[in-house]
Amino acid sequence: MRLAIFADVHGKLLLPFKLVDRYQQQTGQTIDFILQCGDMGAYPDIHRLDKATLKHARQNRDELGFHDDFMQENKDIRRLLDRLNIDMICIRGNHEDHAFLDQLEQANTTLPRFPIDVYKRIFVCRSGVKQELRKDREVLYLAGIGRIGDAKGRTDPRFIQEYEQREVKKLLKSTGYIDVLITHDKDDSSQRGYGMKAIRDVLDNVPVSYHFYGHTGEPFRQETAINGITQSVKVSELEFGPSGILPEGCMLVLDHRPDGSSALEAVSQRFTNQLTQYNWKD
């Protein structure tokens, strides 16, 4: 099973699908699922943007990509998504319309993830709920924790909610392992006051092979977590730089093999440079 991993797309939800399409064509390697580490920019109503998104949207319409590309049918987008036949599985970031996502989550309480777009290709994980990804006879165990943590105890929708904390506590008591944990925030082990304690609790108590996260603005980095087991990977934000190109480590590919082994590829900038700020929508 092969997964493509992205973070912080901020409205450019179509871009990972286009990168995956090009990757498959040029490498001959099939991608089975796309994982996305929050800050989708899921704003169906442009009148409900938060201040940061509104500021960026005034300069760049890409911030409104969910509204523009995934709320109403577009025949060209439908054709691309149907041809790819790949689902994108996301977790919440801190820049989302949480009221919109809350409504969908409350209507799908029996499911580990729920669709949010008109094409039923973008799914959001319920935080702390372990789930299975299946491809033929292969199974991968996935969990996600959305939003961000806050040492000050604030509870507005940007921050992990009490009901999500309860799900994480259930996860800590469960048996078995997690192949992939996706979060928006990092764990709080490196600097007091930053990160999310719930993430560290999972890494300290549940065997996790890979942990992917975004949010922090740090460059791509892969290291062994403090638990000595987990490969902790900071995914670069899917943001075009001043020269109009994407940063190193913004697209990762995890090859999870039937025997339990795996390999992680940071897709080269030589590849990602093919899609720039100026041509990616062509």
Automatic annotation (TrEMBL):
Output one GO MF annotation.
hydrolase activity
- What CDD domains does this protein's entry cite? MPP_superfamily
The domain of life for this entry's organism is Bacteria
Native organism: Chitinophaga eiseniae
Q: State the name under which the record lists this protein.
A: Calcineurin-like phosphoesterase
Q: Which Gene3D superfamilies match?
A: 3.60.21.10
Q: Which residues form the Calcineurin-like phosphoesterase domain?
A: 1-217
